[in-house]
Design goal:
The complex is a heterodimer of chains A (about 350) and B (about 625).
Chain A: E1 12-22, E2 29-40, E3 45-49, H1 56-64, E4 71-76, E5 79-80, E6 91-94, H2 106-116, H3 121-134, H4 150-163, E7 168-172, H5 180-197, E8 200-205, H6 208-214, E9 217-222, E10 225-230, H7 232-237, H8 242-247, E11 252-262, E12 265-270, E13 273-278, E14 288-293, E15 299-301, E16 306-315, E17 319-326, E18 329-336, E19 349-353, E20 359-361
Parallel strand pairs in A: 3-8, 3-9, 6-7, 7-8
Antiparallel strand pairs in A: 1-2, 1-4, 4-5, 9-10, 11-12, 11-14, 12-13, 14-20, 15-19, 16-17, 16-19, 17-18
Chain B: H1 2-45, H2 58-65, H3 68-99, H4 105-112, H5 120-131, H6 136-144, H7 155-166, H8 169-180, H9 184-192, H10 197-225, H11 229-234, H12 239-247, H13 257-284, H14 306-334, H15 338-343, E1 359-365, E2 371-379, H16 385-418, H17 423-437, H18 440-450, H19 468-494, H20 498-506, H21 511-539, H22 543-547, H23 556-562, H24 576-601, H25 606-630
Classes of the chains: A alpha+beta (about 350), B mainly alpha (about 625).
Chain lengths: ~350, ~625
């Protein structure tokens, strides 16, 4: 499969790109994307993640050439592509709606890009056959697109983009029209094919679990700017802001003044208890501090670090879900495999504790 | 370097195309829409009096001094009466076939919908043939009601009667769709809350139909105001026939004929603009859309009261007879020989195809007692040179105009969608909708007078002269059909997923290739439907044909009209009525075929079409397999 690809993957560089739109209500200009600067290495799978309106799709569309940046430059394989129209760029996109041509069958849809590139007929036949085999659609060449299931349509869209051997493959929320089960299956497929072909892929989604499972790197965006870039692990365990922490998975925030500070470690006073936490930041005693800790990193027991009162106790099968009150703060706890553990009821007094390496000081 | 140069040249080329397109569009809009109509408007105020002085108010004074207001009042009277009668009949036929449980509703519906294929000048002449003083139906009626006036079918009554049944097609299409859109649960809810059947109809069903009814009422009013073929052929002094008469008159015959015609057409335009603005304003308020996510299909209501049930059935079938009798009679008479048609009596022994094909000689005795023979004067539709000429001319002109309207609109809509939310797109759209605001007669009259002289931007030629008039007819047909084509094609473009265009561009297609190979194939079925519907409407179109009527522009509708002339004297216009009936059959077949292709075949979705294709292929394979086996 991997020998199908003959072209080298290309890297993408965005140099201080911005996109300005006019607000239709106020008539004022606003930045949809502001000063985005990043480098995507060849062959990597990068996800642009963020809530609606954060500028991720606009960024992707600027790379594809459907939007032109008002400021900054875009480089593909080291060459500036700002002035190139979409049809002249070495990219291929998989669209949210799949955008399959309804008047063509599967074969013609996939062969469309090759025909435009004036590839000889027999080579078109060979390449389309190979790519359909790769996406497991062999034998469906003559079917019309409305005779395919959602997952099959998705595969045709992927095959159509892959067959032209683009330098960069772009995905604009390609799984959002599929049901949950198929979504998981397809994202594994996409990752498998990307790794097999070694192609550079840029993927847009607002689904953090999708981003975590599929990406080499995640670029989290908010309000048109990059909030944080990094590997899924970095972003999950070391969020640099409350927004990032909250957007990626569930999170608890415990606030209090810094009570102790040394190299690589600090303590935050929460309801009168000094809670140790690992940090690479330089902080001073008396500064306001905020600990970020994931629900699954917290343990609940009769004894522990911080006293709390149970407000919700709910059995979820593989885990027990707790909401407890620590001072004025509501803390969520995911207690995995509760079968051999004590189950606390609503109104019980308990203690919570967590390892300092599992917590993070913002 | 090379690629940069190529890019620059492609940018230059696209700019060149844009400039060329812009100039062409401006030329067409200014030259064939705005300038002729403005010229008509200004002509009212630049009229010269007897002394040769320009007197801006001369025509207006003359208007009030002469009999001109009569035409306006007559048209208004017709429009108002038509609104009442068309709504009464239109609402009845829809309720009888869609809402109430009337036996034989499917057959009744077919009968009520015959006006979709039997309309225009064919319908008017057909009604005239059957209902005039010697008409077969009038004679039947007189036998049944001896006190009845034999000449009842003339003037206002005839026009109103004919147009009432001719104008219910819109009700049959749009009101039917509206009533089918009602959520039956609302009817059940009302019944459940204690409402009686009539109360449900009046308070629950009818209010939801009001927006559609309002639109239909406005359209009917405009139709009545701008009526042309029925008043002309049945003799009623309304605005449109008068405009056409004045347009052909000269100052030697009467005062200010052209300016009076212009004034009448402007009055008509003002009425139309006011009504359409009102309609537009009303439509913007929105329709009542069912919010139900599980809409229940309407179940037909049985009329519980036996007396009312019988009355409703009688009423339904009387209407059916009124709709169907002319159609059946015209079809039957189309196959009768000349003497039978002339005597307006049906006879099984007089069956013939002469009204369609072939010729026959006609011998007669002159007033001096001499026997004369005229060769081939009894001829069929497809053997009579005049009729064939009219069909051919109408076919070519209608096809050209329908195609031109489609091309202009497809290119324009593509531009509008590419630049949506921009002023230039709104301007292009407004330009194409411009003819919608104006009555057809104003556009045609403007064309006829404006181009009846040397006009510099059409190579200094007189376009109303000899064969040039055909170009003028094509342009007028095109202009008049632009708004309809725009609305339909725009709706088709809305169905295109924006991402399809992006996908094509992303895969390497240029704008032109994307348009030709992705967007056009998707909208093509709708474009072809628009072409077919426009062609169908233009093929037997009367209003414009009458305005441009000349020996070089004698369309099929005018040929049909000429068949109503007196028959048989000295062998002139032999079997005119028979040929007219045959023409009507031919028109019904053409219209029926087009409507079937558009609403029957065209309405099937892609999956259904593929299924049918597969089925036919299987049948074909079976058939050829069997043949091969038997061979």
């Amino acid at each position: 499969m991997a020998d199908m690809r003959v072209k080298e993957p290309k890297g993408v560089e965005l140099r201080h790109i911005s996109k300005i739109y006019k607000d239709p209500k106020t008539g004022k200009d606003f930045y949809a994307v502001h000063d985005v600067d990043l480098t995507i290495v060849p062959g990597s799978f990068v996800t642009l993640l963020g809530p609606s309106g954060c500028g991720k799709t606009t960024t992707l569309r600027m790379i594809a050439g459907f939007e032109s940046p008002d400021e900054g430059d875009i480089f593909l394989g080291g060459e500036s592509i700002n002035a190139l129209t979409p049809n002249k760029r070495d990219t291929a996109m998989v669209f949210q709606s799949y955008a399959l041509f309804p008047h063509y069958n599967v074969f013609d849809n996939v062969a469309y890009g090759l025909r435009l590139r004036k590839v000889p007929k027999d080579e078109i036949q060979r390449r389309v056959k190979e790519i359909l085999a790769l996406v497991e659609l062999s034998g469906m060449e003559q079917r019309m697109t409305n005779q395919l299931s959602g997952g099959q349509q998705q595969r045709v869209a992927l095959a159509r983009a892959l067959v032209v051997e683009p330098g960069v493959l772009l995905f604009d929320e390609p799984l959002s029209n599929l049901d949950a089960k198929l979504r998981v299956q397809m994202r594994t497929e996409i990752r498998r094919i990307q790794q097999a072909l070694g192609i550079t892929a840029i993927y847009v989604t607002h689904d953090q679990s999708e981003a975590m499972s599929i990406s080499d790197n995640i670029i989290l965006m908010k309000g048109g700017v990059i909030a944080q870039m990094g590997t899924p692990t970095e972003i999950y365990y070391h969020p640099n802001s409350e927004f990032v922490a909250d957007f990626i998975g569930e999170c608890n925030f415990l606030k209090g003044p810094i009570s102790a500070a040394s190299v690589g470690e600090a303590a935050v006073n929460i309801v009168g208890v000094d809670v140790p936490v690992a940090t690479d930041k330089s902080v001073k005693v008396g500064d306001p501090g905020e600990i970020v800790v994931r629900p699954e990193a917290i343990a609940i027991a009769d004894e522990g670090m911080l006293p709390c009162k149970v407000e919700l106790s709910c059995f979820m099968g593989s885990y027990q879900n707790y909401h407890v009150r620590v001072g004025d703060t509501l803390v969520k706890i995911t207690d995995n495999c509760p079968i051999n553990k004590k189950i606390f009821a609503v109104g019980d007094d308990a203690y919570i504790s967590f390892d300092k390496v599992c917590a993070h000081l913002l | 370097m090379q690629s940069a140069a190529r890019r620059k040249s492609s940018v230059d080329l696209s700019l060149l195309w844009k400039v060329f397109g812009g100039i062409l569009f401006a030329y067409l809009f200014l030259g064939f829409m705005l300038l002729p109509c403005l010229s008509t408007l200004t002509s009212i105020f630049t009229t010269k009096d007897a002394a040769g002085h320009t007197d801006p108010l001369a025509v207006v004074r003359f208007f009030f001094a002469g009999n001109m207001p009569t035409f306006v009042i007559n048209s208004l009277k017709l429009a108002v009466c038509l609104v009442i009668t068309v709504n009464v009949v239109g609402i009845s036929i829809v309720l009888l076939t869609e809402y109430f449980d009337i036996k034989g509703a499917k057959i009744l519906r077919l009968g009520y919908m015959t006006t979709l294929i039997y309309s225009g000048v064919a319908l008017v002449t057909g009604y005239q043939f059957l209902y005039d003083g010697n008409g077969m139906l009038t004679q039947w009626l007189v036998k049944m009601f001896p006190m009845m006036n034999k000449q009842w079918f003339s003037g206002f009554r005839a026009v109103l009667f004919t147009m009432t049944f001719a104008c219910t097609s819109n009700h049959a299409l749009f009101l039917r769709n509206a009533i089918r859109g009602i959520d039956y649960n609302t009817v059940e809810a009302a019944r459940n809350l204690g409402a009686k059947p009539f109360k449900v109809l009046w308070k629950v069903v009818m209010p939801t139909l009001l927006p559609t009814l309002f639109s239909l009422t406005v359209m009917t009013f405009i139709t009545g105001l701008c009526a042309m073929s029925a008043p002309t052929l049945l003799g009623y002094n309304s605005i449109n026939p008068e405009i056409v008469r004045l347009a052909g008159s000269s100052v030697a015959d009467e005062a200010f004929p052209q300016a009076r015609a212009a004034l009448l057409s402007i009055i008509l335009a003002l009425f139309t603009i006011v009504l359409l603005t009102t309609l537009n304003h009303y439509e913007r308020k929105g329709h009542y859309l069912s919010v139900s996510k599980t809409k229940a299909k309407l179940v037909k209501q049985k009329i519980q009261n036996p007396v009312w049930n019988v009355i409703a059935h009688i009423y339904a079938y009387v209407l059916f007879i009124i709709y169907m009798t002319p159609v059946v009679m015209i079809v039957l008479f189309a196959f009768q020989n000349w003497p039978a048609v002339r005597a307006k009596s049906l006879n099984v022994g007089d069956w013939t195809l002469i009204n369609f094909f072939g010729t026959q000689d006609y011998s007669y005795t002159t007033s001096r007692g001499k026997q004369k023979l005229r060769q081939g004067v009894i001829s069929g539709v497809f053997s009579n040179s005049d009729t064939v000429g009219g069909i051919r001319l109408s076919f070519v002109l209608s096809a050209l105009a329908a195609a031109l309207a489609c091309v202009i609109v497809v290119v324009a809509v593509n531009y509008i969608f590419k630049h949506r939310n921009k002023k230039r797109a709104a301007i292009v759209e407004a330009c194409l909708l411009f003819p919608w605001l104006l009555p057809t007669i104003l556009i045609c009259y403007s064309f006829r007078t404006f181009f009846n002289g040397e006009v510099w931007y059409v190579l200094g030629k007189n376009m109303y002269y000899r064969e040039n008039v055909r170009f003028l007819i094509v342009m007028a047909y095109t202009v008049v059909k632009l708004p309809f084509a725009l609305r339909m094609v725009k709706a088709a473009f809305y169905a295109i997923d924006d991402e399809l265009e992006d996908a094509a561009r992303n895969l390497g297609a240029s704008s032109l290739v994307t348009f030709l190979r992705v967007k056009l194939p998707i909208v093509l079925p709708s474009v072809l439907a628009v072409f077919a519907l426009n062609f169908n409407a233009l093929f037997t179109e009367y209003d414009m044909s009458a305005t441009f009527h000349s020996s070089y522009g004698k369309s099929y509708a005018m040929v049909i009209q000429s068949m109503t002339a007196e028959e048989g004297r000295d062998g002139y216009n032999m079997n005119g009525s028979g040929r007219r009936c045959a023409s009507t059959v031919f028109i019904m077949l053409v219209s029926g075929l087009i409507l079937y292709l558009v609403y029957g075949v065209g309405a099937r979705d892609l999956g259904e079409r593929l299924e049918r294709r597969k089925k036919w292929k299987r049948r074909w394979a079976r058939l050829t397999g069997k043949k091969a086996a038997s061979a």
